[in-house]
UniProtKB/TrEMBL annotation:
InterPro entries noted in UniProt: DUF1989, UAAP2
Domain of life: Bacteria
Protein name according to UniProt: Urea amidolyase associated protein UAAP2
NCBIfam families registered for this protein in UniProt: urea_degr_1 (TIGR03424)
Organism name: Neptuniibacter pectenicola
Location of the DUF1989 domain: 16-185
Length: 212
């Protein structure tokens, strides 16, 4: 569902451009609104959320999908934790829908999806592992990397129940915006993927904005 935001970028308290292949790992406080802006279009922001007070509580695709009765995420979606608590709500969305079924790219999936010699190419899972290693203050490790949201990714479920990676429906300047219901650690891998026609083999930066 398309829903525009009333928030003005110039009034954001934090703004940070995340280059393709880089990560973003910061706490968004309860009540703050944060936006991921697809600066050039058809980028994928592979995102995980954790309770900042106890990272063993984290975003759950299963609980979120079951409770909303919809496999896609958009404005109005309530992002639930593995304990059934509301973590964030999508309050604005100019892209229309986001995937939470397809998972993130990894060196293993690169070999299955593309070619064996793609194994050593940079993937989202590598960025997440680097993020948790470089941010010891959160006390997280490899075991905390779980299923994610692919903001701006178009992964339609086919009539026979399969998944297909389709051409992106995002574009330059489209965004998704969420209001935090608890203090959350936001961990984004801005996808470095060079093998997927969805992004025209050209990963691009996103911008993260936060309003108090
Ligand atoms: Zn990726």
């Amino acid at each position: 569902m398309i829903k525009e935001s009333l928030l003005v970028a110039e009034q954001a308290s934090q703004r940070e451009v995340v280059p393709a292949g880089d990560y973003y790992m910061k706490v968004v406080k309860a009540g703050q609104v944060f936006r991921i802006l697809d600066l050039e279009g058809n980028q994928a922001a592979d995102t995980l959320f954790y309770n900042a007070d106890d990272p063993s509580e984290r975003y759950s695709a299963m609980d979120t999908i079951r409770e909303q009765g919809n496999v896609y995420l958009s404005a109005g979606s309530k992002l639930l934790s593995n304990e059934g608590n509301l973590m964030l709500e999508i309050v604005a969305d100019t892209c229309g829908r986001h995937d939470t079924l397809g998972g993130a790219c990894a060196s293993e999936s690169n070999t299955v999806r593309y070619a064996l010699e793609k194994k050593c190419m940079h993937a989202c899972r590598d960025s997440w592992l680097l993020a948790v290693a470089e941010n010891e203050q959160f006390g997280m490790s490899k075991r905390d990397i779980t299923h994610n949201i692919n903001f701006f990714m178009n992964v339609p479920v086919t009539a026979d129940g399969g998944l297909s990676f389709a051409d992106g429906i995002s574009g330059a300047g489209k965004y998704v915006e969420m209001k935090a219901a608890m203090d959350v650690i936001v961990l984004i891998s801005n996808c470095p993927q060079l093998n997927n026609p969805c992004n025209a083999y050209n990963p691009t930066p996103v911008e993260v904005l936060i309003w108090d």
